[in-house]
User: Fold this.
Amino acid sequence: MPAHAAVILDVDGTLVDSNDAHARAWIDAFDEHGIAVAFDHVRRSIGMGGDKLMPEVSGIDESSPLGQQISNRRGEIFKTRYLPQLKPFAATRPLIERFLADGLTLAVASSAKKDELDPLLKCAGVHDLIPHRTSSDDAANSKPEPDIVVAAVKRAGADPGRSIMLGDTPYDVAAARRAGIDIVGLECGGWTREALSGSLSVYREPADLLGRYEQSPFAGLRLQTSRG
Assistant:
């Protein structure tokens, strides 16, 4: 039996409007430890794994005692202060349903921690639709390294040559390309079309992609699936 055609999904900034919330949670956690970091710098780093974000914005190693304290506190702040307020982007669930109707296998490749991923998918309203999930806990190296994407493709039983990622940051683009799969970009996470260079196509948000679905790379993926 041939390997499946698949859509590999980022979550934060792609399905859920959460990138600002993640940045604020980091700022709050650093602030509680007496460390001032610039919001813009943190916001531009959202999409990396925390192991890369922390030294990027503060020079602190996440594996150090202080780094662990800040990382753990960020998780607590995010889940209690920000997660309950999050909303999906318009047409997120209809887009995921369209992928499924086209016979595409779905898998998540997220930089989120495992204990945050399920709540985020519930916020997106697609928790029941995506069976295959990988998080930062499933990979030795976080985005922009390809490990999470490679793990998601493998978990989906997919053919990399018949898989397309959907993401919103340059780190998603880099991870997908390094994993040997194509990517479609969304601007709703806060990055411009130019910043998402390397994507097959770029759309404003899930609703825009759904509205132009028949001209998108995913329609071509559907045709590959129908041919087996």
Notes: Residues 4-18+87-227 form a domain with the Rossmann fold fold (CATH 3.40.50.1000). Strands lie at 4-9, 105-109, 132-134, 158-167, 182-186, 202-203. The chain has two domains: 4-18+87-227, 19-84. The first strand starts at residue 4 and ends at 9.
